[in-house]
User: Fold this.
Amino acid sequence: MVSKLEIGWFAGIFDGEGTTTIRMKVTETKNYGMRPRYWTEMTVVNTDKNIIDRCHSFLDELNVNHRVYLRKARKENTKPMYTITINGAGIKTLLPKIKNHCIKKHEFEILEKALKLGERNQKRGGNKEGLRGKAPMPDEVLDKFDTLRMKLVAMHGRQAANLVTLSSKDYKRGI
Assistant:
C-alpha cells in the first residue's frame, strides 16, 4: 500500500523534474498515405539514480506501466541522465492518484482530455492507448489533438514552442 507521503513525494518530484506532452509523429502507410499519430506521455528526468530508482519502485507499487531509460553522458563533464516514461494506460492509472497533490493540474486536465479523445478514436480502430489507429483520424479529431497539444506547448514556454513547428494539417498539405 502506497502512503500519502509517498504520493506527495512523487508529486513533488514530478512537479520539479517531470513534464507532460502530447506527441505527434507522421508516418507513411501503404493504404492511407501520410498520417499523423498522437500519444500522451509523462516523463521524469534526473541525473540522480537513487531518485529514479525510488520513482520506479513507487510506480511499480501502483502497477503503473512505465519504462526507465539511461542516456549516457555525451560530454566528459556531464552526468548520465535517467528518464522514466509513462504512456497511455500508465497515465490513466497514475493521474487520479497524484493529480490533487501536483501543481501541474492544468497540464493534467489537458492530458485527460487527450486520453478521452483517444478512447473515442479507439472505437474507430485505434490501439489499446486509443491514439494510434490503423485508419486515419477524422479532421475534427486531428484539430482537437492539435489544439490540446498547442495548449501544452504554451504552458511549457518558448523553448517548447520552438520544437513544435508543424500541425497535422501542415503535414496533410505536404508542407
Summary: The first helix runs from residue 4 to 17. The chain has one domain: 4-163.
